[in-house]
Amino acid sequence: MYQRIFLAAVAAVLISGGAYAADPAHAPAPAHGGGDHKPHWGYIGEAGPANWGDLSGDYHACKAGQSQSPIDIGNAPHQDAKPLAISYKPTRMRVVNNGHTIQANYDAGSTLTLDGKQFNLLQFHFHSPSEHTREKSAFPMEVHLVHKAEDGTLAVVGVFIKQGKENPFLAAIWKNMPTEVDHEQGEGNLNVADFLPSNKAFWNYSGSLTTPPCSEGVNWFVMDQPVEASEAQIKKFLGLVHENARPVQPLHDRKLIHRK
Asked: Is 191 helix (H, G, I), strand (E, B) or coil?
């Protein structure tokens, strides 16, 4: 029964759009509103995170859920385990401005495998500042790589971005970043494997989507080592999208495990 409920929630988020939607045709309404049949949500004012749970019955988990994301990554017990088995391949450059973030959609064939279960990479998108925090401090940005298994289970890899030198991977995406909402553009190919940190240690916990409907049951893997982006690259994202981070949520009784 739980699986049926969770799969229905996953279907809802993939249909409604948001930071975790894979299909640009299902992008959400522009940040200033629009004709989308779902309630408008955003990051400030009455449509902001504090009120998401009251905007729609479909968003009830945003205020009542007990396993919500993001969280603060503090000191977690170390657990020896197999590393994430990542097999990311090149994909066509397909960059979308969906009104809430900049998202790059991924062609089929790239996977993440953990403990024998395979998840297919759908897309990755950006938040600023970072949604997860480390010992209550946020990074300038965070990337979320969204994966889905055949049974509908979602897995998201989070990568922190700190300010430093220019990132050539981001430079290629920023060059193709649409300035208009609901537009897609792209030229050439990319491989997100080129973006990941060399150290694949991560924190693992069970959480949720960080945008409405805040569906729970999401496997989170937050990379330990951040990557770098220049101040100009961070400012370019903020100049177009503005801040788009949900505040951290209570951990409650969940286990946070650090895997090396």
From this structure: coil
H or E element that contains 53:
helix 52-55
pLDDT at 225: 96
DSSP class per residue in the chain: -HHHHHHHHHHHHHHH-STT---GGGPPPPTT--S-SSPP--SSGGGSGGGHHHH-GGGTHHHH-SS-S--EE----B---PPPEEE---EE--EEE-SS-EEEE--TT-EEEETTEEEEEEEEEEESS-SSEETTB--SEEEEEEEE-TTS-EEEEEEEEEE-S--HHHHHHHHT--SSTTEEE--SEE-GGGTS-S---EEEEEEE-SSTT--EEEEEEEESS-EEE-HHHHHHHHHHH----PPP---TT---EEE-
Residue 148 tokens read as: 């889905």
Mean pLDDT per 10-residue segment, the chain (260 residues): 40 47 37 53 97 97 98 83 88 96 98 93 98 96 98 97 98 96 94 95 95 97 97 98 97 90
Q: Looking at domain 2-259, which of 3.40.50.1970, 3.40.605.10, 3.10.200.10, 1.20.1280.260 is its CATH number?
A: 3.10.200.10
pLDDT at 36: 46
pLDDT at residue 37, as a whole number: 63
Yes or no: say if 218 and 207 are a contact pair by the CB < 8 Å rule: yes
Does the predicted TM-score (pTM) go above 0.85?
yes
